[in-house]
Amino acid sequence: MTPADVEPLLQSMFIDAPGTSLRDEDRKKAVEVAAFLTELERIGTRGPLVDAAAGKSYLGLLAAELLGVDEVTVIERNEKQVHNARHALSKLKHAKVTTTVGDVEDASCWPSKPRVVIGLHACGAASDAIIDAAIAREAKWLLLVPCCYPSPAFAHQRADALGISGAAEVRKKFVQSLIDSERALRLEAAGYETSVIPFVAPTVTPHNLMFRARRLMNQKRMHDAKATLTNSFAWSSASRA
Fold first, then answer.
1. Residues 166-183: tens digit of each pLDDT
2. Is residue 207 part of a domain?
3. Is this structure's pTM higher than 0.85?
4. Which of 54, 81, 116, 134 could pair with 142 in a Cys bridge, judged by C-beta atoms 3.0 to 4.6 Å apart?
5. Would you name any one GO CC term (predicted)?
6. DSSP for 180-225?
């Protein structure tokens, strides 16, 4: 999958004005979407698939159209974005997609047992909600690229305890690393073999880390992750909010 495969569909689906062309930011989006779909292709394109906190649902729509993924569910709380996704969907030939207006924390928005859960640039607490939902529904795979990070008190308390500099960029990197570590451990503790990889170059987007998690239920990994969470991340799930 290459950006050249994605760009024509982005143009036809989301840019209606005659004579207009893709902007630089659209071309960067095409790079991200192509890279994400390549990862999805590697793990298999059988559904059901949930595109969570989907925005305009570039991923869900193009996964259905280009990869032939069946049973795609799009979840997005912004009605305007869902309207845009439905408008784009009407232009596609093959995609079979259900669009849902709702929050990713709302269990009624989700299919009972998705095989794959995906999320591109899920903001702040939405990434944690997607992780929790994927675990609760025993999804086989999770591919998640978080976006902006929350700034929870526990992370700053930990930084203070360790004497981490208060300089903004130094503190930010520490807090982000702490949050991502907890997310990876939470997935491991729930039975997911988890890796965190750069899926595109940081020149495309600074938010370029993908959580790639596969549900294997390896008891030793689960035990070790739970022990680390207990010993090193001794704060409740409510503290993440």
1. 787 888 888 889 889 999
2. yes
3. yes
4. 134
5. cytoplasm
6. HHHHHHHHHHTTEEEEEEE-S-TTT-S--EEEEEEE---HHHHHHH
